[in-house]
Amino acid sequence: MPHTKSDTSPSGDASARAALPVSPLLQSTLDAAQLPLQVAVINRRTLLISALAVALGLASAAVAQILAALIAFFTNLSFFGQFSTHPRSPAENHLGLLVLVVPVLGALVVGIMARYGSRAIRGHGIPEAMEQVLTNQSRIPPRVTILKPLSAAIAIGTGGPFGAEGPIIATGGALGSVVGQILHSTAAERKTLLAAGAAAGMAATFGSPVSAVLLAVELLLFELRPQSIIPVALACVTATAVRYTLSGSAPVFPMPELPEPGGGAICFYVALGLIIGLASVAITRLVYAIEDRFEELPIHWMYWPALGALVVGVVGYFAPHTLGVGYDNIEQIVSGRLAGTALLFLCVMKLISWSIYLGSGTSGGTLAPLFTIGGGLGAVLGSAVAAAFPELGVDPRIAGLVGMAAIFAGASRALLTSVVFAFETTRSMAGLLPLLGGCTASYLLSSYMMRTTIMTEKIERRGVRVPAEYSADFLEQVRVQEVLSQPVVTLPADETLGQARAWLHQRNQETHHQGFPIVDAAGSLVGVLTRRDLLDPDHDETQPLRSLIGRAPVVAHPEHSLRQAADHMVRNRVGRLAIVESAEPTKVIGVLTRSDLLSAHRRRLEESHRRKRTLRIRHPLSASRK
Predict the structure, then answer these.
(1) What does residue 249 show for φ and ψ, rounded to 5 degrees?
(2) How many other CB atoms are there within 10 angstroms of residue 79's CB atom?
């Protein structure tokens, strides 16, 4: 009997085939055929994670209050010899030269906690959370939930020039991770809970829920999906509501009402953003250069923070306002109460103290010090320009606000977080447009000059690649019907294995398919066999191909996305899918292979290259060079 091979879709009139009776065996095969899962955007699991996120918001708000109280307690104990949780600035101390000793004692305690408790308490807080998201499926050891806030409270309470927000963010993230581990959640759900806890910590500290959500998106989630953004947003709303209840809803860094800036002032604020962006690059490199120098010391890393703390004490003796969180410094900068040489001196001293102590590997954060340094630099430059060119209408207070946000935008590349955070914490409408222009300029220059950021440099040195761009999944945008392989090559189910092998040998140079849909006499799909199945020497050549089929066919419809198809392949561990019509599931119209998926990406790259080439040709500077 001659071979029957089809290089097109199975022949026969569709209506006639539909009228043919379907055998029970074929019907059971079709019923068992595995199609890609249709996953709902929001399901019951998302509702559960959202409820947990609300609870995390409450817990993170409580952690923020506890950490603030701990910092106040250690500050009062270290600098004033009092047992009190009433907030007080260490700048008010009267210790004299003894101020050199206090930070060193605190650093020794932190070093011991890091060595015998957990090394994870060292560093900024946010980079460590990012690393757990990217490398450890968002699993953070439970002990970090206790050790991180306690070590940070000791470091800051004994004069460390850090803000409380970094440790609170890290602790909230650790808390979310622990909850996810207890409930045996998926890696994606743990990441969402970690981000929810971290963002809620920031929202509870500053009363800035929107920027906290953006921080989670830009630095922790690396995505923008309903399944993740909804729980994070609910956690931030909850934490902020708790803060409003306990501390009021007034902005953290209040500014007076200011007139809207004119065109000349806007141009200056954008130029200021470029200057601040350059400063953010220099500061990032400075911090890691100092860290590298500490790595070269011939003593155990447990003692490094003590050396850094000695610098903190010396600087604190000459510039007491560099000690502690320094939120009052930021408030004075944006309100215009601190200016001139005093402000410049504070910024320089804060930079020296913070960069060396952070580089030594102690427990501390980056946001408040960066805000102080950037805000001070912006206010000083704004004052100089306002005095030299009064017609521009530059306001040093807005310049300080722009500097504060722009340095974080440049150092962390969290552009939207920086803009919205500065607005939420000051409620200054006049500063919104300058913020957008200045932060974008800083972000632009930083991205051009530096591949990594102050948040990612450390973990990228360890071989961890951090996503720098978020874009829509290309495979989700392409349908299967656009790239499937046609014409389809099928094999008759009743043909013997020997006949199929003879055909393969005869067409070896023409047919490079690795899998073949198996169809019955009516052209209806029965299953799929691979070339390996057909050439397996353990199989009897007299067997019909139908008898070799060991599993239900793994199929997809032409209207499925390539993302659904690719996930379907991975889930079922197959290298190809039989593509069948949704209205007629027995009719094979093509095959989708891994090569077809790669060809879709090749088309994406070609389109991108074509766009870039077109832009180069049309660029006026390119034309002038010719």
Answers:
(1) -105, 10
(2) 26
- Rounded Cα distance, 106 and 49, in Å: 38
For all residues of the chain together, what is the average pLDDT?
Answer: 85
Q: What is the chain's Cα-based Rg?
A: 32
What would the pLDDT profile of 37-50 be if each residue is shown by its tens digit? 666 677 888 999 99
Give the residue carrying structure tokens 């090394």.
Answer: 119
Could you check whether 14-35+478-601 and 263-461 share the same CATH topology?
no
Euclidean distance between CA atoms 154 and 148, whole angstroms: 10
Of the candidates 463, 439, 455, the one whose C-alpha atom is nearest the C-alpha of residue 375 is 439
Note the CATH number of domain 14-35+478-601.
3.10.580.10
What tens digit of pLDDT does each residue of 212-226 get? 999 999 988 888 889
pLDDT exceeds 70 at position 622? no
On whether the 44-247 domain is CATH 1.10.3080.10, my answer is yes
**Architecture field, domain 263-461:** Orthogonal Bundle (1.10)
Element (H, E) at 518: strand 515-519
**What is the phi-psi region of residue 540: left when phi exceeds 0, alpha when psi lies from -120 to 50, beta otherwise?**
beta
Report d(CA 306, CA 326) in Å as an integer: 21
Global pTM value: 0.81
Higher-confidence position of 608 and 3: 608
Q: Kindly list the domain boundaries of the chain, sorted by start residue.
A: 14-35+478-601, 44-247, 263-461
pLDDT for 392-402, tens place per residue? 999 999 999 99
- How far apart CA 169 and CA 378 sit, in angstroms, is 26
CA 255, 258, 260, 265 torsion: positive or negative? negative
Written in H, E and C, the secondary structure of 182-243 is: HCCCCHHHHHHHHHHHHHHHHHHHHCCHHHHHHHHHHHHHCCCCHHHHHHHHHHHHHHHHHH
CA 259 and chain centroid, separation: 36
Q: pLDDT (tens digit, 9 = 90+) per residue, 160-217?
A: 998 888 788 888 888 999 999 888 888 889 999 999 999 999 999 999 999 999 999 9
**DSSP secondary structure, 237-264, as one string:** HHHHHHHHHHH-SS-SS-----PPP-HH
Burial of residue 55, with CB atoms counted within 10 A of its CB: 0-12 exposed, 13-18 middle, 19 or more buried:
middle
Q: What is the largest CA-CA distance in the chain?
A: 105
Calculate ∠ Cα 608-614-615, nearest 5°: 90
Q: What is the pLDDT at residue 7?
A: 45
